[in-house]
Specification:
Blueprint lengths: L7 H20 L11 H12 L12 H16 L26 E10 L2 E15 L9 E7 L23 H20 L5 E7 L7 H8 L8 E7 L9 E5 L7 H7 L7 E5 L8 H5 L5 E5 L18 H20 L25 E2 L2 E3 L9 E6 L4 H4 L7 E5 L2 E2 L3 H9 L6 E8 L2 E8 L1 E2 L2
Parallel strand pairs: 3-4, 3-5, 5-8, 6-7
Antiparallel strand pairs: 1-2, 2-4, 6-8, 9-16, 10-11, 11-12, 12-13, 12-14, 14-15
Helix pairs in contact: 1-3, 2-4, 2-8, 4-8
C-alpha cells in the first residue's frame, strides 16, 4: 500500500482549504434540525458533498477524511443528538447534548498493516452519536453504522490502477451508506425507539476495518447491553429491486425480522447467514454480537474513479433507507433480546485482507450468489489480466494456482500468495463444464 499522507504543514493547509470549501457547500444545504427536504433530495445533496473534489476521496489520514468527519459531526450536532463522553477530552468529558460538534468525533491512532514492514500510524477518527431511547429498555442499544472513508488517491487498492493517483470519489462505497445513516439519525431523532441507538460512522474500513475494530473493541456501553449491529455498505446501486442482507443467522430471531420488514412494494431480498465479510459488521460479529449487513452488490465502478454521485440510484437508496428503518425499529422495540449464534461456514472468522500483495487480476465477485461453492464472478474488468486470460462473467472459480476455492476468503488468500507477473492456472465452472485457464497476474498501481 502506498503512503497517502503529506507533511504536517501541507496537510494542515489542505485541511483548511477543504473545510472552507465544505463550509460553502454546507451553508447552502437545508438546516438539518428543521429538515423539510424530501429524503431523495437530501440523500442526493449529502452524497454529492461526500463525493466532491473538496473531500478528495476521503482517504483515511487525509484532510478530506477529516473534513468528512466534521461534516457528519455538524449534522449530528444540528440534530441535537447526544455525544459520547470522552474522559480524555475535557470539553467533551460529560457527553450528552453539549452543542459542540467536535464532541461527536472520536479520535484514535490507527495502526495500518504494511507488508514486510512496520505498521504505519495514522491519526484519524470515527464519528458517533447517541439517540436516547424511551422507557425501561433505554439502557439497551442497537448500533447502526457505515464507513465514511474511501480510497482517496490510493491506486494500490483501486481497480483502475492504470489511471494512477486519481481521486476516487466513493459515492457508493460508501457515501451511500453514510448518507443513509444520516437520514436514519434524522428520522429516529424525530421518533425515538424503545432502546437507545448508537449511530456511528467508521474510518479506515478500506485499510482493514480499522475504525470498526477500534469501536467494537472499545464500546461506549457494556457489550451485554447491545442488541445488535446493523451495517450499511454500498447501498446506492440497486438493480431490479435486489437487496442482499448478510448475517441473518447470527441470531435465530433475525430471519423473521428481515422478512417482516419487507413491505410492499417488496424488495427482492437475498438473505445470507454468515456474519463475516469484508465490511464493518464483521468487527462486531467477532465480538459475539448479532449483525446485519445491507448491500446492493458490486458493480463495474467499484473502487474506480467512476464511482460518482450521479451514477447512484437515489430512489433505490431511499427504499433501502426505509427498509433499514423498519428493521432497526423492530430490533429496538421488540421486548426480548436476540440470541447470538455463531454461523458455521467455511472461511468464517477469517478476516479479509485489504492490503493484499500488490497483485491485480480484475475480477468482480458476485457477492449475491448465496451459498455457491467457489468464487462466482459477476464480471471482469475490460483489458484486465482476468479478461486477457479468458475469465468471463458467470464463471465460478473453483481452483486458483492449485488451491481449492470454496469461497471469497479462499480466493483472496490464494491471490495474495502470488506476485505480479506470475502465471497461474485457474479452473472455473462454466455452465456444466470445468474449464482450465492460464492468467498472467498484473500489478496494482
Amino acid at each position: 500500500m502506498t503512503a497517502m499522507r503529506a507533511s504536517v504543514r501541507s496537510r494542515g493547509a489542505a485541511l483548511g482549504a477543504a473545510v472552507l470549501l465544505l463550509a460553502a457547500c454546507h451553508r447552502a444545504a437545508p438546516t438539518p434540525a428543521n429538515l423539510s427536504t424530501p429524503p431523495a433530495a437530501q440523500l442526493r445533496e449529502d452524497v454529492t458533498i461526500l463525493a466532491s473534489a473538496a473531500l478528495d476521496g476521503r482517504g483515511t489520514g487525509t484532510a478530506g477524511n477529516d473534513s468528512a468527519a466534521m461534516f457528519l459531526a455538524r449534522r449530528y450536532n444540528a440534530l441535537r443528538l447526544a455525544s459520547i463522553a470522552q474522559a480524555d477530552r475535557p470539553a467533551c468529558a460529560s457527553g450528552g447534548v453539549t452543542g459542540k460538534a467536535e464532541c461527536f468525533i472520536l479520535p484514535f491512532t490507527a495502526s495500518v498493516p504494511v507488508r514486510n514492514g512496520a505498521p504505519r500510524q495514522l491519526k484519524t477518527q470515527n464519528v458517533a452519536a447517541i439517540i436516547p431511547g424511551k422507557g425501561p429498555l433505554a439502557s439497551e442499544y442497537v448500533i447502526v453504522g457505515a464507513h465514511f472513508d474511501h480510497l482517496g488517491r490510493d491506486s494500490a487498492n483501486a481497480r483502475d490502477p492504470e489511471k494512477g493517483h486519481v481521486m476516487h470519489p466513493g459515492a457508493d462505497d460508501n457515501g451511500s451508506g453514510t448518507v443513509a445513516t444520516m437520514e436514519l439519525a434524522r428520522r429516529f431523532a424525530k421518533q425515538p425507539t424503545n432502546r437507545s441507538l448508537i449511530i456511528v460512522n467508521f474510518t479506515g474500513e478500506e485499510l482493514g476495518l480499522l475504525g470498526s475494530t477500534q469501536f467494537a473493541g472499545n464500546l461506549p456501553v457494556p457489550k451485554e447491553k447491545v442488541q445488535a449491529m446493523v451495517n450499511l455498505d454500498m447501498v446506492g446501486r440497486m438493480k431490479n429491486d435486489k437487496l442482499i442482507v448478510y448475517g441473518v443467522l447470527t441470531a435465530p430471531e433475525l430471519k423473521a425480522i428481515v422478512d417482516s420488514a419487507n413491505l410492499a412494494p417488496k424488495l427482492t431480498i437475498n438473505a445470507v447467514g454468515d456474519g463475516e465479510g469484508p465490511s464493518d459488521h464483521a468487527a462486531f460479529y467477532r465480538k459475539d454480537l448479532p449483525v446485519l449487513h445491507l448491500f446492493t452488490d458490486l458493480h463495474d465502478d467499484y473502487h474506480t474513479a467512476l464511482d460518482l454521485a450521479d451514477r447512484l440510484n437515489i430512489d433505490g437508496l431511499v427504499r433501502v433507507t426505509d427498509y433499514t428503518e423498519r428493521v432497526v425499529r423492530a430490533l429496538a422495540d421488540r421486548p426480548g433480546r436476540l440470541t447470538f449464534q455463531r454461523v458455521q461456514t467455511a472461511g468464517a472468522n477469517r478476516p479479509s485482507s485489504r492490503a493484499g500483495s500488490g497483485v491485480y487480476l480484475g475480477t468482480v465477485p458476485d457477492m449475491g450468489a448465496g451459498d455457491v461453492k467457489g468464487m462466482p464472478l459477476s464480471g471482469v474488468r475490460p483489458g484486465s489480466p482476468a479478461e486477457q486470460g479468458g475469465l468471463k462473467a458467470g464463471d465460478i472459480i473453483v481452483k486458483f494456482g492449485g488451491k481449492v476455492i470454496n469461497n471469497i476468503y479462499d480466493y483472496t488468500d490464494a491471490l495474495g500468495s502470488f506476485k505480479p507477473d506470475d502465471v497461474v492456472e485457474v479452473v472455473v465452472k462454466r455452465g456444466g463444464d470445468e474449464v482450465t485457464l492460464k492468467v498472467t497476474l498484473g500489478k496494482r498501481g
